[in-house]
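Async update (no meeting this week)

Hi team, since we skipped the sync, here's where things stand on the single-chain job. The sequence we agreed to prioritize is pasted below, unchanged from the tracker. I ran it this morning and attached the output directly underneath so nobody has to dig for it. Comments welcome in thread, and please keep replies under the output.
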Amino acid sequence: MTPQRTLDVSGLPDFEISSEAPLWWGQLFLAFIEGSLFCILIAMYFYIRLSMDMWPPPGVQLFGELAPALCVVLLIASCAGSYLASQAAQRDDRGGMIRGLVINLVLAVAALAFRTLNWTHWNFTWRSTAYGSITWSILFLHTLDVVADLIFTLVLLILVAIGRHSPRQRLGVHVDSIVWYFLVAIWIPLYVTVFWGPHLVGAPQ
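Output:
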């Protein structure tokens, strides 16, 4: 009878705050799944657009360009805070984590403010037309993801600020950066679709 082999893992740390952590990979693959959903929405947008003689439909008020552009700039800039927090988490630098998370939150909330400002000028709803439905779906789902992650970031900031920065919380800060990079990266093609889509493809002949 072959003796059973055992592997001694008692010397391994409970948490690995790096890209080798299972939670890091789990979050990365979750981003791929969510990214597939947003890609489907982009495909739906252009599928519907190609079936219409006029896009947007008559009476739809086109978006201003400044607020959406500022939103993109602020979201990209907020990645710097997320990166600083992630690097600080690996070094167990409590002050660095707090600074990075604050930068991330402030810039992201400012970006959402510009997005909300833009929404107030829309004269259509998700029930108005197919254009309204797909446009609102893209903006609503992405905003929902952003708000959910910002709540998670705020919780991490509170925990670290009150002195709870054990490896468990530090791993959360590190993994949170992956989520935020994804949300910012996927917004770029979504932004192009929603705000430049009406000008990218001509009406069907």
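Quick observations from my side:
The first helix runs from residue 22 to 50.
Residues 158 and 164 are 9 Å apart (CA to CA).
Reply here if anything looks off.
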